[in-house]
Amino acid sequence: METKHEKISVSIWRGQEDGAFEAFEVPFVEDQTILDLLTHVQRSVDSSLSYRFACRVGMCGSCAMQVNGKPRWTCRTLVRNVVQNGQLTLKPLANLPIVKDLVVDMEPFFKKWQSAKGRFEPAPAPVEHFVPIKPDDKQRQKADDAIECINCGCCYSACDVVESNPAYLGPAALNRAWSLINDAKDYANPERLIAVSSDGGCQNCHTNSQCVARCPLGLNPTRSIAGLKKAVSLATLKGEI
Fold first, then answer.
1. Which residues 6+ apart lie within 8 Å of 121 measured at CB?
2. Phi, psi at 125, each rounded to 5°
3. Is-contact 203 233, C-beta < 8 A?
4. Where is the 2Fe-2S ferredoxin-type domain (predicted)?
């Protein structure tokens, strides 16, 4: 229910890279999410406001943006938990080109996913026997720990290595590579290890763990990247790559 008199000031990024913040005064509504607030602004104040969303329930990740300087899913972030002194600041995800207002171009993010060989590669020919995958298998558990990523881009936006080195593959792409490295049914590990040890590969991570702090699902890309570093070193010593 809307409170009788309480309002908050919301500064929203407008335009492209050379844009600026525009302030809106909006009613404070109990249990309102950031996405709800943006919907109110677009429907009742300024219909030209651009932002991205789909599922509204934390399944797709498309509504991610910076809330008071931190990347978050806006559909799962309550206004009351982040408003500071009656004010909010909303900006598009960092480290990605701005299309308009709060919408970013995700193409560089997904290109790095491809560069890290983030696609499952089956055997070149039909296998005679399927590999048994047991729930208590350590390799399977490592894959399970990394596999829930939905590509929202929060970790990529929070990563200071991506900010300083645009060639860096980033936490999400490397986390995906690690899940496939531990998939016994995948047949592209040598090529994948070469890909993740390139100039923009896993060795660039300096374990700041901002990706861990900002992942809405509680994943640990830093641990995945550490696993990749070890796997690359072992494969190099064995002469496999």
1. 180, 186, 187, 188
2. -135, 155
3. no
4. 6-96
Q: Identify the bridge partners of residue 66 per DSSP, sorted by sequence position.
A: 71, 91
| Listed range (52-56, 133-137, 212-216) with the worst mean pLDDT | 133-137
| Band of residue 30 on the pLDDT scale cut at 50, 70, 90 | confident
Token code pair at residue 71: 């990347």
208 is written with which tokens?
Answer: 């700041």
DSSP SS3 for 22: strand
Domains of the chain plus CATH, in order, are 2-104 (3.10.20.30), 107-237 (1.10.1060.10)
Helix pair 171-181, 138-146: axis angle to 10 deg = 160
Quick: pLDDT tens for 159-201. 999 999 999 999 999 999 999 999 988 999 999 999 999 999 9
Cα–Cα distance for residue pair 162/56, rounded to 1 Å: 28
* C-alpha span between 55 and 164 (Å, rounded): 32
**How far is the C-alpha of 97 from the C-alpha of 108, rounded, in Å?**
9
Pick from 113, 14, 108, 103: nearest CA to 53: 103
39 forms beta bridges with none
- Categorize the per-residue pLDDT at 137 as very low, low, confident or very high, splitting at 50, 70 and 90: confident
**Rounded distance between C-alpha atoms, residue 96 and residue 162, angstroms:** 10
Q: Give the mean model confidence (pLDDT) for residues 43-62.
A: 96
pLDDT for 195? 97
Please give the Cα distance from 163 to 105 (Å, whole number): 16
DSSP tag of 50: -
